[in-house]
Amino acid sequence: MVEESHVVTCFLEHDGKILLLQRSDRVGSYTARWAGISGFIESGAEPLDQAWQEISEEASLEREQLELIQIGPILAVLDEKLGRKWMVHPFRFKVQNPELVKIDWEHNQCKWIDPEEIREHDTVPGLYAAWELVR
What we know:
By secondary structure, the chain is mainly β. The chain has one domain (3-132): Nucleoside Triphosphate Pyrophosphohydrolase (Alpha-Beta Complex), CATH 3.90.79. It has two helices and eight strands; from the N terminus they run E-E-E-E-H-E-E-E-E-H. The chain has helices at 47-59, 127-132, and strands spanning 3-14, 17-23, 34-35, 37-40, 66-71, 75-79, 84-95, 107-113. Strands 1, 2, 3, 4, 5, 6, 7 and 8 form an eight-stranded mixed β-sheet that branches.
């Protein structure tokens, strides 16, 4: 049986580069893989509200430091190994001051890359497909 989980994936952009974050060994899945800012959509929460919350927690940025650029359609990503179907709600935000990004315990490191470089990294499933929906 496949469990369905709704998550947000947020791409932060500055000067044509996007932020990739490497997941730490303290998270529940996909440790050491690269991702955008992401998280489960809490019960009853709106996806955009969850996106703002995840950005605040994982990058220490608040709404006034960001501009919402794009909301993508939901992307279904099946991970048979985990027995989970991720329903990814992708978002793209513009960051005014990237030097203010401070990652939390969920990530080991982060870096700004050209979006096409996503494919050169060991990412969470469907990350590049999610990017394509908000590019």
